[in-house]
Model the fold of this input.
Amino acid sequence: MKYVDEFRDRAKALSLVAEIEQLVARIGRPLQIMEVCGGHTHSIFRYGLEGMLPKEIELVHGPGCPVCVLPMGRVDDCVAIANRPGMIFTTFGDAMRVPGSKKNLLQAKADGADVRMVYSPMDALGIARKNPDREVVFFGLGFETTMPSTALTILQAHAEGIQNFSIFCNHITIVPTMKAILDSQEMHLDGFLGPGHVSMVIGLDPYEFIASFYKMPMVVAGFEPLDILQSLWMVLRQIAEGRCEIENQYARVVADSGNAQALTAVGEVYELREHFEWRGLGSINKSGVKIRSKYAQHDAEAKYALPGVRIEDPKACQCGEVLKGLIRPAQCKVFGKSCTPETPLGALMVSSEGACAAYYQYGGGIKLNVRAAL
Amino acid sequence: MCLGIPGRIVQIDDAAKKLATVDVSGVRRQVNIACVVDEAHPVASCVGDWVLIHVGFAMSRIDEKEAALTLQILRELGEAQAELEAMRGSLPS
Done:
């Protein structure tokens, strides 16, 4: 197939790497580029892209995995909701194993709570429709990528007058967090690979301050290996030419203006919280959303009394330092010892998009397999 | 959840609710298409369009060649399996 052959053309990948090497030589200093999105982190490890790059380039794995940055206190809230009499608690599968302070949702289910995995919030609404005598809660999480799906589901529940359906909203927004990273004194980044599917919803405008105020280049990137290599090359080209712009490599999916219908639904249902707690990063101003009071009937936080306790991360965990790019996953004291994908201590080991889980799964063979993989 | 999967809209199920059936690698399921409907793309015109689907919602219209390409790559790399399994698991048996 013409397009597949082109896309998987090893020579093309290697020539991109050669171009990258030339740019690095021209720039003449070590560079730290952060991929913000967990999907990118996963691709980078899966295809062993780090091993292809010149040693001057360090990829810093950013905070863009919504499962990973969920604080334990919120998982405890989920368990408390799931344990209510008659409750059906629904969630994406990814969230089942995120550790709470005492148990995760999988353990709550084993202990008798009615916890059900669903593919879509629409499926959760379907369960509510079929069980009018029971309360159904959906665990809403994710960045702007999944925010429109829960907003539209709430609007649908509202339109149908389905009273027994609500969402426990843990949606977060990436831009304030990128700003917090840029303001951090500990980090010195040279550019960003921007999140592809968040940008599909919000467009490019919200990132403009990164180029204009922080003088940092950013390229919104797709998720295939060649997408990532090409985006990296675009970032380096900006650095070499002394430009700081927000560019879009993923134009086949991302419109510069974002998705108007999705943004309208999000704006109708959600408003910014004053602050939201991120695992490993702490509290970040205006980085989360909550459900507007107009839709309180569909807001689990408004309907049920929640423990809402802030739980410190386990002392041994260094997720925060990994998230900030201060240490590599394998440098964490518990990595691969007491913290593994089977029994994660830290959040970054939970989701396959977490830096530690990806590193654990693919880390060993990277340098050997990389060129064969493409 | 965040990666999404490309599929093709094969029929409109409920124009008012903007629900349509998509075909994803042979698996069919209903998704919400509200985010890809606008003045330039009324509901009825969406049949045949390739869309990127996240958690049961069509979030972006994509170029057909690009979609086929992405799907091929994802399938070969086993990446699509988790999404497809989740979709199959969500269908009434």
In short: The two ends of chain A are 16 Å apart (CA to CA). The first strand of chain A starts at residue 31 and ends at 37. DSSP finds 17 helices and 13 strands in chain A. Confidence is low (pLDDT under 50) at residues 1-7, 364-374 of chain A.
